[in-house]
Structures
1.
Amino acid sequence: DARVTQTPRHKVTEMGQEVTMRCQPILGHNTVFWYRQTMMQGLELLAYFRNRAPLDDSGMPKDRFSAEMPDATLATLKIQPSEPRDSAVYFCASAPTSLDGDTEAFFGQGTRLTVV
Amino acid sequence: SQKIEQNSEALNIQEGKTATLTCNYTNYSPAYLQWYRQDPGRGPVFLLLIRENEKEKRKERLKVTFDTTLKQSLFHITASQPADSATYLCAISRYSSASKIIFGSGTRLSIRP
């Protein structure tokens, strides 16, 4: 049963600490997305990758957030230093390439981050 | 910037009736529009995709329309069931359905028995 795996599922950290969230996309999917979800803002796109290359990270605060794909099986989202306003659920999603453009994004279970 | 609007208020429907959810977008010309379902504590799950050159698409009890002139999509669930209760998210993308996908904030649907 192919699925997107995110770790950790929950993270509580103190303000100023570094946070790293990890995502294992579905094998063979070459597009990976990072989203942040809050009650106020809904689901916001932070960044996305195609074939491990970043295509768009305009939704990400550059001064403290960074996203990478060290290899095809791992995507990371790092916050340094973390702030209380970063508290949210962070979702990773992956999608395969389709010749006709029709495909869907598969989401992980999310990482619930609380910064105190 | 692109903006997607969905009914911010929850929609309460009697079981067996048709639920209709609305998605409006501005400052964008999407080639693809998708609908996802999200249950509490879970990630969104894909339901349906419709292209800009398609007016309507159906899948079992689900129907989606896409009006590029009105910049609007309607999502219908016929013969609704309590198990359909969830938040439904509209999403748009331009070049393929796996290019930059932008989501609306979702509409919470409750089906009462």
2.
Amino acid sequence: DQQVKQNSPSLSVQEGRISILNCDYTNSMFDYFLWYKKYPAEGPTFLISISSIKDKNEDGRFTVFLNKSAKHLSLHIVPSQPGDSAVYFCAASERVGGADGLTFGKGTHLIIQP
Amino acid sequence: SAVISQKPSRDICQRGTSLTIQCQVDSQVTMMFWYRQQPGQSLTLIATANQGSEATYESGFVIDKFPISRPNLTFSTLTVSNMSPEDSSIYLCSVVLGSDEQFFGPGTRLTVL
């Protein structure tokens, strides 16, 4: 059973607009959430994280929102740029920090249209 | 961040054979992990590579199939034993640095015929 779900396999967004990627989880023990970006033939690259004591974390064009009661998080990218085209993975852990292995969703392929 | 390299980057193997994948980091790290990503699937944690002791395997993964070595704080190997086509995946190592986030190697793309 998938504990981390990304229900949109792909998303197409116009350059300059906002990209919103969604992630749902079922394990209430998850306490730490991360987003990774992956280009073909490369390993995932860490983007941004959030712990359950916060509901928002921002880093430049990237903002992650966490709704713990709904077991839902989202990644907002604004403005979207062509270089943002990649597969985005949502991941979760029961502990803050990286001491535990991560549970990943299946990813969302973001395509930025010029 | 750290520079993480994996060898080989890709390989095509015959069923019944074994392949050893190497992961090298350019700095000492405490935590190292091995994941696999089967086609169309998410990354799945195989095991935590412990330095100086046996690896800790996740449910569904066993040492006989995926033996792991971690002789020091910068290096680890994962062996995929007695391979079958179902083992065709991307295998990735990851490390934890001081910032606590996991950083991933480039991956090894394995195809088993």
3.
Amino acid sequence: LAKTTQPISMDSYEGQEVNITCSHNNIATNDYITWYQQFPSQGPRFIIQGYKTKVTNEVASLFIPADRKSSTLSLPRVSLSDTAVYYCLVGGLQGGSQGNLIFGKGTKLSVKP
Amino acid sequence: DAGITQSPRYKITETGRQVTLMCHQTWSHSYMFWYRQDLGHGLRLIYYSAAADITDKGEVPDGYVVSRSKTENFPLTLESATRSQTSVYFCASVGSGTGRTGELFFGEGSRLTVL
């Protein structure tokens, strides 16, 4: 199973770009990399998913190097409302982990005015 | 309304009692999951199910029982609750077919306190 390692916490200021890196050295060929955001007292919410290179959507970008042993979630111009815990999840529903989707400990991002 | 719902949202019980947490999804998603989240900690996978009548253990299955007789329901039972099972429990679901993990949809959570 691909374990993930993320920084426990990060601080930023409004308007800055935030990059959160996740290490997953034993990622399997069939595994995808997915990032989730969680606010207190709520379930996690999907942000972005990728397999390799770069993926961008309306809220974030995901950078994955060729060896896929790490990934970086990039949040452009964060605001106070981006204060949350961010989880990197590595896995796939075919081959690989077959549903054994295990979250890492997450990164608590605090955005200050 | 479409979505994934959990019940009860809040439950207080005593040590040794049986408790069942319900999870219902309306999308006909193949996969369903139960996670627990302890105060200030991350999510830990308890059990998951790839389809009706197919379940498998996750990281922390001891003390829990699941069943999935219908695609839309995935109840989690604590047969004899212990204080260490005090936690917030999240149910999630995701479709399958493309090989991707897809987007996990989480319920609102069930906050369980065992006295």
4.
Amino acid sequence: EAGVAQSPRYKIIEKRQSVAFWCNPISGHATLYWYQQILGQGPKLLIQFQNNGVVDDSQLPKDRFSAERLKGVDSTLKIQPAKLEDSAVYLCASSFSRGDDGYTFGSGTRLTVV
Amino acid sequence: LAKTTQPISMDSYEGQEVNITCSHNNIATNDYITWYQQFPSQGPRFIIQGYKTKVTNEVASLFIPADRKSSTLSLPRVSLSDTAVYYCLVGTGSQGNLIFGKGTKLSVKP
């Protein structure tokens, strides 16, 4: 089966600019997650969707980050305006149900804010 | 949310068996134990999951004692390609409660 697709693979922007990341989960996976992974640390959950509804966004910096999952399939994560500390890899993952069967991660988007 | 503690790093040689232990003293009754592997520039990859006793698949074994306060990931006969960061997670997967720690960086030497 096809894996979780993410684009772009890399992105370099200046601080205060905006950026968007796209994720296409595995077909049939109802649950979708966005993680932020700063160099040397484990992934940190930003937001979890169940179909097109938000299950958990408690760690999403809502003043600058937003995410949507229209029609319960693809998802986009946006940062506006970006800060230097947003430099990280943004990982998208999906699972069939709630994750009890394990997540499948994409390769991520490496964001550098200069 | 159950927190996990695992060694920051481990070294091994090709052909050896590697055991990585994870402590999770406040694991809840409904929590599963899941291990992920991450190579540089890639997302984490699911390795194995268990609830109690022993689970084995084609990649690894997971040993869980009766009290479930710890677990041990066992990698038989490691090779250079097993060099990666290994994460132990505890939770049910619902509401984003699978929390990643810093993981264990395994270095396999020839």
